[in-house]
């Protein structure tokens, strides 16, 4: 079709503008293959589907990406949406292209609209994909950008969902990768759908003042251009309007009206050499009036996303303030395209990362600290914090520059230097003066850390530090150095929460449940789970809901089932439980764990779904809560109960007397009973609560042991536990 050929020629022309050695035949072959693969498929707009992958390829070309990435952009939907396989792409094109498409396909399967646990896990998968090949996320960002450009054809619900994903995940990623052109457009499009009225209001006001503003900017540019020519400096100067989203943030963050925002445009000066940047700065400060404390040198101290430029704010001759950004052409390219600007295109170097790969150290940091966070909310918060725009730049006494999140403390700085420095930190000097460790660092501070080889971090630091790196290192220290204490602390925290909820320890803290929960949270043992709770990487609130789910399933009695509709014969022999059900045979009978009935107790049967008959004490609270009494049936203890053993739980309240536990175990031993489990806890009133599960064969044994324990000095109360 005509539009296909014109699109293809437009794409090839764009690629040739920065990569004259592009393989035109391969691009053409890939384009034709993609069009045939998507033949008969249409987008929500009604347009042929091939328009979308073509648009993605054009975005990648605008980022000056290599041939393999552009071809992968053309193919990014074929494995998921057509019959074409990874093996087809590898055979017909290359393994490199197949791998890129496979990476994007896996990213497309990640859903961020799910609950926090899944959202964090999906984010980890995305970070892993980025670490393998950063081009995968560049393709994904291009895909998301075109989808946002055509979001008008989606339902309102989908528009809100996709726009929120962009602001929470994709725009911060674009920022961290230095891809400002992508970031600005993603943010503006998100605002357009999340706050349509506010967005349109800002756009209208920008348009109303555009002509006047552009005239003012052009006057300043002409004046400054003439001044630079006096010094024989060749520079290109132009105005850059602020994005709608950045204006929105400033309005609502600082509670300003649109008319109160003065810096709607910035002035950019692009020169050929780095030294000329500083020459231009000096000329600007002489020609205009510099505003104090607004100069920032991002050339000497680049941002983590590789951004370099000199920033200064001046008062111009027209009485208005303007920010001036000064940079070289190479710096400008990096500021616009970020990591995408640093892929090699020359023959033999495709897919080889340049020296700028070292700039992705932050990605490896995230890969490191994400392993220590099983708490999904905390991981998501740290991700957002790590990708936040606000940063401070401080210096070591030797002049080394450190970038830290805004709000960082000397402790954050210490861990940025080295984990050993952070762990031994006892104080700090900022600009030569002693400051508290809670001091908020500011750009330009010179920070000196005071250490003590015998010191270690405090858990309170976790409430003070701002950077994810510091939080991770502090938790790692506690994890390694205080494992035993953490296990005890974690178990105690869990037990206290269980007691607070009104459960007995044996009722909720069953070993098999804790083992399963530990495994699901990627711990190799219960002790590892306790330790993680103890040092703070896992919260008790992550564990309790899972325990309650097990408890509900284990002790469930309110289940809808049908009674047996026939009787085979009367069963006079007790089952292994020792219980007889007159009129019913060949059915499984189990003693309920919630109330542990024993011979002598009044009992009742409950027909469960697929698990036979559950036998309860008649005074069991679970039985009392059954709504449909038709599901309760008559059962009785059999006559022959010899060699039957039963479990019963006792709870003892006592004073904290020395030797009291020894007295209890002596009584139980003299009664010839086995102890199955034994738990104690100290109450706020200094009394002690003891829960014991005993193995008995008759109700008389339990009566005897209760009577004897009551006679032990220090006993306040002892009773059999009901559910």
Automatic annotation (TrEMBL):
Domain TGS: 390-451
Annotated ranges, domain HD: 49-148
InterPro entries in alphabetical order: ACT-like_dom_sf, ACT_dom, Beta-grasp_dom_sf, HD/PDEase_dom, HD_domain, NT_sf, RelA/Spo_fam, RelA/SpoT_AH_RIS
Keywords of the record: Kinase, Transferase
Example of a GO biological process term: guanosine tetraphosphate biosynthetic process
CDD domains: ACT_RelA-SpoT, HDc, NT_Rel-Spo_like, TGS_RSH
EC number in record: 2.7.6.5
A Pfam family reported for this protein in Swiss-Prot or TrEMBL: RelA_AH_RIS
GO cellular component: plasma membrane
GO molecular function, one term: GTP diphosphokinase activity
Enzyme class: transferase
The keyword Cytoplasm appears for this protein: no
Reactions the enzyme catalyzes: GTP + ATP = guanosine 3'-diphosphate 5'-triphosphate + AMP
Domain ACT: 649-723
SMART domains in the cross-refs: HDc, RelA_SpoT
Pathway: Purine metabolism; ppGpp biosynthesis; ppGpp from GTP: step 1/2
Membership in a protein family: Belongs to the relA/spoT family.
PANTHER family from the UniProt entry: GTP PYROPHOSPHOKINASE, GUANOSINE-3',5'-BIS DIPHOSPHATE 3'-PYROPHOSPHOHYDROLASE
Function (record text): In eubacteria ppGpp (guanosine 3'-diphosphate 5'-diphosphate) is a mediator of the stringent response that coordinates a variety of cellular activities in response to changes in nutritional abundance.
Protein name: GTP diphosphokinase
Organism of provenance: Finegoldia magna
């Amino acid at each position: 079709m005509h539009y296909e050929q014109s699109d293809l020629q437009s794409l090839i022309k764009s690629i040739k503008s920065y990569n004259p050695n592009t393989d035109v035949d391969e691009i053409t072959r890939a384009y034709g293959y993609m069009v045939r693969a998507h033949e008969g498929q249409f987008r929500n707009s009604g347009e042929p589907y091939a328009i979308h992958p073509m648009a993605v390829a054009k975005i990648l070309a605008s980022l000056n990406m290599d041939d393999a990435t552009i071809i992968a952009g053309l193919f990014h939907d074929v494995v998921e949406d057509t019959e074409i396989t990874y093996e087809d792409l590898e055979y017909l094109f290359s393994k490199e292209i197949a791998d890129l498409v496979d990476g994007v396909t896996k990213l497309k399967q990640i859903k961020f609209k799910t609950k926090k646990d899944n959202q964090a896990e999906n984010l980890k998968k995305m970070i892993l994909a980025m670490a393998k090949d950063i081009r995968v996320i560049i393709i994904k960002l291009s895909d998301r950008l075109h989808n946002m450009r055509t979001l008008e054809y989606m339902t309102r619900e989908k528009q809100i969902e996709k726009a929120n994903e962009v602001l929470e995940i994709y725009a911060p990623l674009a920022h961290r990768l230095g891809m400002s052109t992508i970031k600005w457009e993603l943010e503006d499009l998100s605002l357009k759908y999340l706050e349509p009225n506010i967005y349109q209001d800002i756009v209208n006001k920008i348009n109303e003042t555009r002509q006047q503003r552009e005239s003012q900017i052009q006057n300043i540019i002409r004046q400054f251009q003439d001044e630079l020519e006096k010094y024989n400096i060749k520079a290109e100067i132009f105005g850059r309007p602020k994005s709608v989203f950045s204006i929105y943030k400033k309005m609502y963050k600082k509670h300003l009206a649109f008319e109160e925002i003065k810096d709607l445009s910035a002035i950019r000066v692009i020169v050929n050499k780095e030294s000329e940047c500083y020459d231009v700065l000096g000329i600007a400060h002489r020609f205009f009036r510099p505003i104090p404390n607004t100069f920032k040198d991002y050339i000497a101290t680049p941002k983590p996303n590789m951004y370099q430029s000199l920033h200064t704010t001046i008062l111009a001759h027209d009485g208005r303030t303007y920010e001036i950004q000064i940079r070289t052409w190479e710096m400008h390219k990096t500021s616009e395209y970020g990591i995408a600007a640093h892929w090699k295109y020359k023959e033999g170097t495709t897919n080889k990362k340049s020296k700028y790969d070292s700039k992705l150290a932050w990605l490896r940091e995230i890969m490191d600290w994400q392993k220590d966070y099983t708490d999904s909310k905390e991981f998501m918060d740290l991700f957002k914090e790590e990708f936040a725009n606000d940063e401070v730049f401080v210096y070591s006494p030797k002049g080394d520059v450190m970038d830290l999140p805004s709000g960082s403390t000397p402790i954050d700085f210490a861990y940025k230097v080295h984990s050993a420095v952070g762990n031994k930190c006892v104080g700090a000097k900022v600009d030569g003066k002693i400051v508290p460790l809670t001091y908020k660092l500011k750009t330009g501070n010179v920070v000196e850390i005071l250490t003590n080889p015998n010191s270690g971090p405090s858990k309170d630091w976790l409430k003070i530090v701002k950077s994810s790196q510091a939080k991770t290192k502090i938790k790692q220290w506690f994890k390694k150095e205080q494992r035993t204490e953490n296990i005890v602390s974690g178990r105690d925290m869990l037990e206290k929460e269980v007691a607070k909820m009104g459960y007995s320890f044996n009722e909720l803290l069953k070993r098999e449940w804790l083992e399963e929960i530990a495994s699901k949270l990627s711990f190799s043992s219960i002790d590892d789970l306790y330790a993680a709770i103890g040092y703070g990487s896992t919260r008790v609130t992550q564990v309790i809901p899972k325990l309650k789910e097990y408890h509900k399933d284990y002790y469930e009695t309110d289940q809808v089932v049908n009674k047996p509709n026939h009787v085979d014969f009367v069963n006079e022999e007790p089952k292994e439980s020792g219980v007889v059900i007159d009129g019913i045979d060949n059915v499984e009978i189990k003693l309920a764990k919630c109330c542990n009935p024993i011979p002598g107790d009044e009992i009742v049967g409950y027909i469960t779904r697929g698990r036979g008959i559950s036998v309860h004490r008649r005074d069991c609270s679970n039985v009392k809560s059954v709504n449909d009494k038709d599901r309760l049936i008559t059962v009785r203890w059999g006559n022959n109960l010899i060699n039957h053993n039963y479990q019963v739980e006792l709870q003892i309240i006592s004073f904290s007397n020395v030797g009291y536990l020894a007295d209890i175990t002596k009584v139980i031993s003299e009664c010839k009973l086995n102890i199955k489990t034994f738990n104690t806890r100290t109450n706020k009133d200094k009394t002690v609560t003891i829960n014991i599960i005993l193995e008995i064969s008759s109700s008389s044994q339990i009566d005897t042991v209760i009577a004897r324990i009551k006679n032990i000095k220090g006993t306040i109360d002892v009773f059999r536990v009901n559910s």
